[in-house]
């Protein structure tokens, strides 16, 4: 019987976009549904895209001071070369999505759903997935200042060649979370790391914080 890989890697769907029709970003509206369209090279500042739906779409080189995506649904789509200081995407759902070559200041996805999401070559200051469902997600070649997973349900997530400054897993439920390739940052919620995989060196890095949490005095 073949041995199961531990931790189990993310199960990422391969993104295959159909032939896309150029779309006009200026016509995007809240509650709209857009399929098999490509949007690129425009400023979305001031747009309210609450409850918008994108399926089989490409969103490229879009800029905004702040983008409102609350309850948005982004399915089987490619998001790349985005430059947006603040993205408000509470309760949003991303499924089968690739996000790459982008700079995001704050990405708020509170109580959202990330399912089969690959984030590549991105720089993000703060990612909030508080209370979210996070399943089959990979970060590759990224720099993340702070990753907040407070109260999240997290399954099959990995970090490859990725820097994370601060990680908060307070109240989170983790399963098959691969931290082996992360230079472990400041971690909040050590008691909720059950379900994560680290190496011996990382354990040494965490030892002082673990001892402090358990009330152990270490001398010498």
Labels describing this entry:
220 residues, mainly beta, 13-stranded parallel β-sheet, seven-stranded parallel β-sheet, 1 helix, 20 strands, 7% helix, elongated
Structure description:
- This protein is mainly β and 220 residues long.
- Helix content is 7%, strand content 44%.
- The strands form 2 sheets. Strands 1, 2, 3, 4, 5, 7, 8, 10, 12, 14, 16, 18 and 20 form a 13-stranded parallel sheet that branches. The protein has a 7-stranded parallel sheet with strand order 6-9-11-13-15-17-19, with no helix packed on it.
- The longest helix has 15 residues, at 200-214.
- The mean pLDDT is 93.
Seen as an oligomer or otherwise, the chain set is: single chain
The helix-strand sequence is EEEEEEEEEEEEEEEEEEEEH
Summed over residues and divided by their number, the pLDDT gives a mean of 93
Rounded to the nearest angstrom, the distance between the terminal CA atoms is 48 Å
Topology of helices and strands:
Elements: E1 21-22, E2 33-35, E3 37-40, E4 53-55, E5 58-60, E6 66-68, E7 73-75, E8 78-80, E9 83-88, E10 93-100, E11 103-108, E12 113-120, E13 123-128, E14 133-140, E15 143-148, E16 153-160, E17 163-168, E18 173-178, E19 186-188, E20 196-197, H1 200-214
Parallel strand pairs: 1-3, 2-4, 3-5, 4-7, 5-8, 6-9, 7-10, 8-10, 9-11, 10-12, 11-13, 12-14, 13-15, 14-16, 15-17, 16-18, 17-19, 18-20
């Amino acid at each position: 019987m073949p041995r199961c890989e531990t931790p189990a890697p993310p199960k990422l769907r391969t993104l295959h976009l159909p032939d896309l029709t150029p779309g006009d970003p200026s016509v995007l509206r809240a509650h709209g549904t857009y399929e098999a369209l490509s949007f690129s090279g425009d400023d979305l500042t001031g747009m309210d895209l609450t409850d918008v739906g994108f399926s089989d779409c490409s969103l490229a080189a879009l800029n905004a001071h702040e983008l409102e995506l609350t309850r948005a649904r982004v399915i089987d789509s490619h998001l790349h070369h985005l430059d947006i200081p603040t993205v408000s995407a509470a309760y949003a759902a991303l499924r089968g999505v690739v996000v790459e070559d982008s700079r995001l200041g704050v990405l708020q996805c509170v109580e959202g759903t990330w399912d089969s999401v690959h984030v590549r070559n991105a720089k993000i200051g703060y990612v909030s997935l508080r209370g979210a469902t996070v399943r089959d997600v990979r970060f590759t070649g990224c720099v993340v200042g702070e990753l907040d997973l407070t109260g999240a349900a997290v399954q099959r997530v990995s970090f490859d060649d990725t820097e994370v400054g601060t990680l908060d897993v307070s109240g989170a439920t983790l399963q098959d979370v691969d931290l082996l390739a992360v230079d472990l940052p400041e971690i909040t919620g050590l008691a909720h790391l059950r379900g994560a995989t680290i190496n011996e060196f990382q354990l040494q890095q965490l030892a002082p914080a673990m001892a402090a949490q358990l009330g152990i005095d270490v001398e010498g």
